[in-house]
C-alpha cells in the first residue's frame, strides 16, 4: 500500500504571517455586488478563495489526485499545493478591468460600485459598448500571461498554460479570438489599471509563497498538459464557488486574510471527509461477509472469490473485466474489488455506472448498503447521478446533513452498528455538475461518457473521477456510438491511473479488446492499436477475469462450480393464439412469466391480450409511464419477484404475468418461471434468459409445468425457408440490426424447433459465433445476409465517425487548452431540457421530449387525479407557481413522448407548442422551472404537433394513431 503523507495547510501554520496595505485603487474594485449595504472587494474574494483552496488541498482533494498532479507537473506535493493556492488567489484578477468594473453602471442601485472606482482615481468611463466587451475570465488570462512573462522572463506558451486556468474557471476556455480582442482593449486601459494588475499579482504571489515555485516551473519552458490543466481548473472552480457563497463568506468592507473566516466558512459548507479505504486482507468469504453483512453460512461464488484474489495481485492501476453469467454476483464482486483497488492505489471514492436510470436506481440501495459497512469514516457523501434522482426513495430519504456520529446511542457495546458509517447526500455536492464530486456515485453511464464530451465544466467530471475507482456495468449494452465515447473516457481514465472494473455476462471479444486497449493507451501514452491485438481471447473459457495495466493484459480463468441452467429455447408464431398456448400453464396452474417486447406499442398490445387471460394478475412496465408510476411499479415487482432478503426468497404471487420492454432486461433483478421474448441479438436474449429461474427456491416452489426453464422467441412475421430469409415483425429491425437478428435466429435453431442453451457454458461461444459471423447461414439467405452485414458495418463506421464530432481528443494531444473545446463552445446541460440534448450527444439517438402530464380543469389544471392522495378537487390557477407539494407531484409526473416526436420536424413543432402552452407560473417554481407541460383533457387526451395522445392508467402514454393502425390490421 503506497500511502501518501498528509498535506499541511499553508496558512495559519507556525511562522506564517502576512499583511498588506492595499492601494485605494485595489480596494475600490468589487468582486461581488451585494447591495447598497455591503459588497465584497476583489482582493477579499481572492484572499478567501486562496484560503478555501488551501483547505481543499489538505482535507478534500484525494491523495491520488495530489500525487498525480505533483508527478505530472514535476513538483513536490508541497510546491504543487502552493501552485494550486496561487491559482485560486489570482483566478479573478480579470475583474480588474473596465468591462467588469463598469458592467452595473446602468443600474441606479449599483452605480455606486463604479463611482467608488472612479473616486479612487481609476479611469472608468462607464459601461463598455457590446462590441468592446470581453468576459473577465478572458481578461484574467491576458493579464496573468503578461505578468508571468514579465516577471520570470519566460516564453508565452508556458505562461499561457498557467494563465489559461483563470481564463477557464467559468467552465469554458478563453478562445484565441477572445484573447486577442481582450488584449487589444486592455492595452487601452490607463496606466493606473496596469499598476493595479501588478499589485494584485505581486501581492498574491508573496501571500501564497509561490514565487520560487512559479520561477522553477516557468523557466523549465514546459507548458502544463491539458489533463493537468483540467484538474487544476476544477479545483479552482470549487474554491471559487465555495468562496462565493455569501452565507459562508459574508460581504463586507476591507480586504485582509482571516484564518478564522476561512475555517468558519468551510465549517458552514461542511464537506464530508474523504473516504480512506483499507484492504482488510481477510479471506474472500470473510471479506464478503464484512462488506455485505452476509450470514456465516453464506459463501461467495467462485467468480466473487476470484475477483478478490486478482485485485490483490494488481500492483498498479489496472482495468479489470469480469465476465460471468447472470446471477453470479458480479455487482458484489466489483464492489469488493473496488474497495481493494481503492486501498492499494489511494483512491477516495467509487463511481458505479449503469446503462439506465432504472439500473442505477436498483443499484443505489446495494451500493449505499455496502458503503455503510465498509467505509471507515463517520460520513461518506453519496450521489445518485440521473435527472430523476429525487424519485428514488433510498436517495430521497438519505440524510442531507452530515453527522460525525458513528453509531446510535442505543447501540450495545460490540454491536456492528458502531462500525458503520453514515452515508449522506450532501447539500453542497448536489446537482448535475457537482454531484460527481461525492465520494460514492451511482449513475447512468452518461455521467461517465460526459467525461469525453466537449462541454462546459467537463473538468469537474475529470476531478470527480480522477480520484475514484470506476465500475461500468453491462458494458455489452452500448452501441458503436456510445462505445466510441466509452473508449475515449477509458483512455482518459487510464491516463489518470484510475482503476476500472467492467462487468458483463455477454461481451464479444472484439468489444472487450477495444475497451481494454483504450485504457492501456491512456495509461502508457501509446496508441490503442499497439494493444488491441495483445488482449487475449478467452475462447470458451467462462467465467473469466481479464486484467490489463499499461504494459500487458492477463487472462484469469475462474475455477469452481457454477450455477448451471439448461434453457429450452423454441420459436413461436407472432400471433395471439400462440402466445395464449405458451402461457396456458401459467394461466391454469399459476407461476410467474415475463413477456418481453422490443417496443412500447407491442407491449401495450400484448398487455391487452394477456390481461384478457389473467385479469389483474397481468402487469405492464415500460418507459412511457409517468416517472412516479414507473418507480412504484418497479418497486412492487422487486418486492414480489426480487432477490432474497435476509436469506428469505421474495413472497411470490401465486400467478403473475409481467409484460415489459427492455427496462427489465438488465435493470431489475427479477426471477421468472417462463419467458416469452421478442427476437433480439444473442447477447440480449441471453441476458433475458438470465431472468429465468434466477433465484434459488425450495423444491416445489415453482409449478410443475414450469419447473424446467423455457424461453419462447417470437417477433417473426415469416419464418422463410431454405431459399428465403425470415421476415421480422414491424419495427423490430428499426430497433436491432437485421444481420444480428439473422445470425441469432440461426444460432438458436429458430428456423427449426429451437435448441437447448446450457448456461453459462454456451454464453461465450454463442456470443462469439454471432458477432464474428461464424454462424452457418443457409445458402439461400447468403445475399440477404451479406447485404445486412454490410449495412451493419457501414452503420458502425458512420456511428464511430459521427461520435468523434464533439468528442474530447486523447490526453495531451490538444495544442492548447482551448482546443479541448474546439467543436463545441457551449453548455449542453444547463437545465433539464438541455441535458437531454447532451445525452443525445453521447448516445446515438435523436433528442427526446419529456413532458409533465397534468389535467386541464375549469380555472386551471391539476396533477393526474389518481396520484398521491388524489387530486380530484385540486385546481392550480394558471400563471401562479404551484404550492411545493403539488409542484413536487407534478415534477414526478414526467413522461417521454413516443419516438415520432424525435423526428426533427415534429420535434420542433411539438417543442414550440409545449413552450408556448407551458404555464408561465412554472418559471417561479424551483422544481418546475424549465419543464414542459402537457395538459390532458377530461378524457386524458391531448393533441400535440397534430398528433393525438392519450394517457391510460394501465397502459401508459398511447400514440392513438399507432393504436388505430394496429386495430386496422
From TrEMBL:
Pfam families: Cas3-like_C_2, Cas3_C, Cas3_HD, DEAD
Biological processes, Gene Ontology terms: defense response to virus
Protein name: CRISPR-associated helicase Cas3
Species the sequence originates in: Scrofimicrobium canadense
Family note: In the N-terminal section; belongs to the CRISPR-associated nuclease Cas3-HD family.
SUPFAM superfamilies xref list: P-loop containing nucleoside triphosphate hydrolases (SSF52540)
Gene3D superfamilies xref list: 1.10.3210.30, P-loop containing nucleotide triphosphate hydrolases
Record-annotated Helicase C-terminal domain positions: 578-736
The HD Cas3-type domain, residue ranges: 35-242
Keywords: Antiviral defense, ATP-binding, Helicase, Hydrolase, Metal-binding, Nuclease, Nucleotide-binding
Matching InterPro entries: Cas3-like_dom, Cas3_C, CRISPR-assoc_Cas3_HD, CRISPR-assoc_Cas3_HD_sf, DEAD/DEAH_box_helicase_dom, DEAD_box_RNA_helicases, Helicase_ATP-bd, Helicase_C-like
Entry GO MF terms: ATP binding; hydrolase activity; metal ion binding; nuclease activity; RNA binding; RNA helicase activity
UniProt xrefs under SMART domains: DEXDc (SM00487), HELICc (SM00490)
CDD domains reported in the protein's UniProt record: Cas3''_I (cd09641)
Amino acid at each position: 500500500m503506497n500511502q501518501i503523507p498528509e498535506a499541511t495547510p499553508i496558512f495559519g501554520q507556525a511562522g506564517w504571517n502576512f499583511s498588506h496595505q492595499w492601494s485605494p485603487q485595489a480596494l475600490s474594485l468589487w468582486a461581488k455586488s451585494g447591495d447598497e449595504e455591503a459588497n465584497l472587494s476583489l482582493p477579499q474574494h481572492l484572499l478567501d478563495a486562496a484560503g478555501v483552496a488551501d483547505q481543499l488541498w489538505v482535507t478534500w482533494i484525494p491523495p491520488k489526485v495530489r500525487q498525480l498532479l505533483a508527478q505530472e507537473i514535476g513538483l513536490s506535493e508541497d510546491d504543487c499545493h502552493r501552485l494550486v493556492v496561487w491559482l485560486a488567489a489570482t483566478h479573478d484578477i480579470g475583474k480588474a478591468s473596465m468591462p467588469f468594473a463598469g458592467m452595473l453602471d446602468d443600474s441606479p442601485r449599483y452605480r455606486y460600485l463604479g463611482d467608488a472606482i472612479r473616486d479612487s482615481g481609476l479611469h472608468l468611463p462607464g459601461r463598455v459598448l457590446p462590441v468592446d466587451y470581453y468576459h473577465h475570465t478572458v481578461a484574467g488570462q491576458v493579464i496573468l500571461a503578461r505578468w508571468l512573462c514579465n516577471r520570470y522572463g519566460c516564453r508565452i506558451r508556458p505562461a499561457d498554460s498557467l494563465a489559461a486556468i483563470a481564463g477557464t474557471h467559468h467552465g469554458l476556455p478563453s478562445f484565441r479570438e477572445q484573447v486577442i480582442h481582450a488584449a487589444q482593449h486592455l492595452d487601452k486601459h490607463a496606466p493606473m489599471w496596469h499598476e493595479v494588475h501588478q499589485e494584485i499579482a505581486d501581492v498574491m504571489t508573496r501571500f501564497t509563497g509561490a514565487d520560487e515555485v512559479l520561477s522553477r516551473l516557468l523557466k523549465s519552458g514546459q507548458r502544463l498538459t491539458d489533463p493537468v490543466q483540467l484538474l487544476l481548473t476544477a479545483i479552482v472552480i470549487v474554491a471559487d464557488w465555495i468562496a462565493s457563497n455569501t452565507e459562508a463568506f459574508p460581504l463586507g468592507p476591507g480586504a485582509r486574510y482571516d484564518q478564522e473566516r476561512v475555517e468558519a466558512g468551510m465549517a458552514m459548507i461542511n464537506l464530508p471527509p474523504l473516504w480512506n479505504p483499507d484492504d482488510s486482507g481477510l479471506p474472500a468469504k470473510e471479506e464478503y461477509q464484512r462488506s455485505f453483512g452476509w450470514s456465516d453460512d453464506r459463501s461467495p461464488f467462485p467468480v466473487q472469490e476470484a475477483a478478490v484474489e486478482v485485485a490483490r495481485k494488481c500492483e498498479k492501476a489496472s482495468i479489470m473485466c469480469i465476465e460471468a453469467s447472470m446471477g453470479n454476483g458480479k455487482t458484489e464482486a466489483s464492489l469488493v474489488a473496488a474497495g481493494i483497488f481503492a486501498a492499494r492505489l489511494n483512491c477516495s471514492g467509487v463511481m458505479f455506472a449503469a446503462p439506465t436510470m432504472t439500473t442505477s436506481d436498483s443499484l443505489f440501495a446495494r451500493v449505499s448498503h455496502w458503503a455503510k459497512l465498509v467505509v471507515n469514516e463517520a460520513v461518506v457523501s453519496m450521489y445518485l447521478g440521473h435527472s430523476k434522482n429525487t424519485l428514488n426513495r433510498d436517495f430521497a430519504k438519505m440524510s442531507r446533513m452530515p453527522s460525525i456520529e458513528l453509531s446510535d446511542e442505543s447501540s450495545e457495546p460490540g454491536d456492528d452498528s458502531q462500525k458503520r458509517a453514515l452515508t449522506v447526500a450532501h447539500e453542497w455536492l448536489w446537482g448535475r455538475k457537482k454531484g460527481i464530486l461525492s465520494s460514492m456515485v451511482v449513475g447512468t453511464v452518461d455521467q461517465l461518457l460526459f467525461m469525453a464530451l466537449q462541454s462546459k465544466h467537463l473538468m469537474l467530471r475529470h476531478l470527480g473521477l480522477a480520484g475514484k475507482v470506476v465500475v461500468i456495468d453491462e458494458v455489452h449494452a452500448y452501441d458503436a456510438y456510445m462505445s466510441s465515447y466509452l473508449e475515449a473516457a477509458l483512455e482518459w481514465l487510464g491516463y489518470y491511473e484510475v482503476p476500472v472494473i467492467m462487468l458483463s455476462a455477454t461481451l464479444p471479444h472484439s468489444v472487450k479488446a477495444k475497451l481494454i486497449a483504450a485504457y492501456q493507451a491512456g495509461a502508457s501514452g501509446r496508441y490503442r492499436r499497439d494493444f488491441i491485438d495483445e488482449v487475449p481471447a478467452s475462447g470458451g473459457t467462462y467465467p473469466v477475469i481479464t486484467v490489463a495495466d499499461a504494459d500487458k493484459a492477463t487472462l484469469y480463468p475462474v475455477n469452481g462450480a457454477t450455477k448451471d441452467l439448461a434453457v429450452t429455447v423454441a420459436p413461436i408464431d407472432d400471433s395471439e393464439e400462440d402466445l395464449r398456448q405458451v402461457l396456458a400453464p401459467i394461466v391454469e396452474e399459476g407461476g410467474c412469466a415475463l413477456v418481453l417486447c422490443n417496443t412500447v406499442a407491442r407491449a401495450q398490445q400484448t398487455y391487452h391480450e394477456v390481461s384478457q387471460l389473467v385479469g389483474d394478475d397481468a402487469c405492464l412496465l415500460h418507459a412511457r409511464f409517468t416517472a412516479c408510476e414507473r418507480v412504484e411499479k418497479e418497486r412492487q415487482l422487486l418486492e414480489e419477484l426480487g432477490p432474497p432478503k435476509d436469506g428469505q426468497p421474495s413472497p411470490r404471487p401465486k400467478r403473475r404475468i409481467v409484460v415489459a420492454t427492455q427496462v427489465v432486461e438488465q435493470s431489475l433483478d427479477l426471477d421468472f418461471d417462463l419467458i416469452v421474448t421478442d427476437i433480439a441479438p444473442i447477447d440480449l436474449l441471453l441476458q433475458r434468459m438470465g431472468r429465468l429461474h434466477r433465484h434459488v427456491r425450495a423444491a416445489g416452489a415453482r409449478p410443475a409445468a414450469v419447473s424446467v426453464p423455457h424461453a419462447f422467441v417470437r417477433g417473426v412475421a415469416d419464418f422463410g425457408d431454405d431459399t428465403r430469409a425470415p421476415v421480422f415483425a414491424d419495427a423490430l429491425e428499426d430497433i436491432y440490426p437485421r444481420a444480428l437478428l439473422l445470425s441469432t435466429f440461426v444460432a438458436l435453431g429458430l428456423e427449426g424447433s429451437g435448441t437447448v442453451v446450457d448456461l453459462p457454458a454456451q454464453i461465450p461461444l454463442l456470443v462469439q459465433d454471432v458477432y464474428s459471423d461464424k454462424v452457418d447461414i443457409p445458402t439461400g439467405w447468403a445475399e440477404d445476409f451479406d447485404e445486412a452485414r454490410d449495412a451493419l458495418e457501414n452503420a458502425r463506421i458512420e456511428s464511430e465517425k459521427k461520435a468523434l464530432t464533439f468528442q474530447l481528443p486523447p490526453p495531451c494531444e490538444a495544442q492548447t487548452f482551448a482546443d479541448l473545446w474546439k467543436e463545441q463552445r457551449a453548455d449542453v446541460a444547463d437545465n433539464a431540457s438541455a441535458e437531454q440534448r447532451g445525452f443525445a450527444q453521447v448516445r446515438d439517438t435523436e433528442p427526446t421530449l419529456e413532458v409533465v402530464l397534468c389535467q386541464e380543469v375549469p380555472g386551471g389544471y391539476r396533477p393526474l387525479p389518481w396520484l398521491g392522495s388524489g387530486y380530484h378537487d385540486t385546481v392550480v390557477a394558471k400563471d401562479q407557481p404551484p404550492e411545493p407539494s403539488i409542484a413536487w407531484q407534478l415534477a414526478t409526473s414526467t413522461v417521454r413522448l413516443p419516438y415520432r416526436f424525435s423526428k426533427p420536424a415534429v420535434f420542433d413543432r411539438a417543442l414550440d407548442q409545449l413552450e408556448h402552452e407551458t404555464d408561465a407560473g412554472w418559471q417561479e417554481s424551483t422544481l418546475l422551472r424549465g419543464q414542459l407541460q402537457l395538459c390532458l383533457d377530461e378524457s386524458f387526451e391531448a393533441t400535440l404537433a397534430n398528433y393525438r395522445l392519450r394517457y391510460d392508467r394501465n397502459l401508459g402514454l398511447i400514440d392513438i394513431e399507432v393504436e388505430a393502425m394496429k386495430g386496422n390490421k
